[in-house]
Amino acid sequence: MTVNKLYWLALPALVLSACHKAPETAQAAASSDEAMAADSTNSVAPADGVPTLTSSDAASDVRAADVPGNTAATYLAKAGAADLFEIEASRAVLKTTQDPSVETFAKTMIADHEESTTMLKRAAKAAGIAAPAPHLMPDQQQSLDAIKAAKGKDADHVYQGAQRDAHAAALALHKNYAANGDTPQLKIVAGKIVPVVEHHIAMLDKMSG
User: Fold this and answer.
1) What is the dihedral of CA 152, 157, 162, 163, to 10 degrees?
2) What pLDDT does 69 receive?
3) N- to C-terminal Cα separation, the chain
4) Which residues, 6 or more positions from 46, have their beta carbon under 8 angstroms from its beta carbon?
5) How confident is the model at residue 29, as a pLDDT?
6) What pLDDT does residue 56 have?
7) Is-contact 116 83, C-beta < 8 A?
8) What is the rounded distance in angstroms from the CA atom of residue 74 to the CA atom of residue 66?
9) Which of 35, 44, 92, 121 shows its CA 20 to 30 Å from the CA of 26?
10) Sign for the pseudo-dihedral over CA of 131, 132, 134, 136
11) From residue 22, how far is each of 2, 11, 15, 19, 45 by CA, in Å?
């Protein structure tokens, strides 16, 4: 049998085999395209080789981020630290100051912030929450150390500057919790503390004037 006859006899079988393989190849290609499309909807292509968050990752991060001071535990810790700093800083400056206005202000700070601490503890107990023992934050301890290290009028200036910063932060903390806090008893106390802090700020402004 010649080569030409063998070719024509085998040709139908080759065509039939190709027809069976074509759908399989097309199906595999379609599956690959669908997988690539799914990947593109679930991830963000990195720019300049820097990985980026997927939309699901970003949503998780947003859910995990708490608003500072809105939970009772966070508020009590920050409010307790703020009161403790005011008291300890005022006690420190009273040991050196010769300025009657600074002395009056410092004594007011001790009395008012001891009272606010008592109010917060009482409200926490009413809400069934154990108020943590207050302790200074690192920046508060640094400010307190600076007041103790200064002498005379320098100590007065350092003290007053620290009080301005501390009262600005305290005002924001109490206002925020009074509006957005999660425990009604503490929200009421936070609202009562706000005007006291505002009065302290007014005293500081008068001293500066």
Assistant:
1) 100
2) 63
3) 119
4) 52
5) 43
6) 36
7) yes
8) 10
9) 44
10) negative
11) 31, 17, 11, 5, 33
Task: State the burial class of residue 46 (Cβ atoms within 10 Å of its Cβ: 0-12, 13-18, 19+).
Answer: exposed
3-state SS string over 61-86? HHHHCCCCCCCHHHHHHHHHHHHHHH
Tokens of 141: 């301890």
Tens digit of pLDDT at every position of the chain (209 positions): 444 444 444 444 444 444 444 444 444 444 444 444 444 444 333 333 333 333 333 333 333 233 456 899 999 999 999 999 999 999 999 999 999 999 999 999 999 999 999 999 999 999 999 999 999 999 999 999 999 999 989 999 999 999 999 999 999 999 999 999 999 999 999 999 999 999 999 999 998 75
Q: Are residues 125 and 194 in the same domain?
A: yes
3-state secondary structure of 47: strand
Residues 54 and 116 in one domain: no
Domain boundary among 64, 88, 110: 64
For residue 208, how many C-alpha atoms fall within 13 Å in the half-sphere facing its CB? 13
Residue 114, Cα to own-chain centre: how many angstroms?
A: 27
**Residue whose structure tokens are 């009590």:** 76
Supply 161's token pair.
């500057």
**Rounded-to-10 torsion of CA 80, 86, 91, 94:** -170
Q: Hey, what are 31's tokens?
A: 């599956």
DSSP state of 95: T
| CA 153 to chain CA mean position, Å | 37
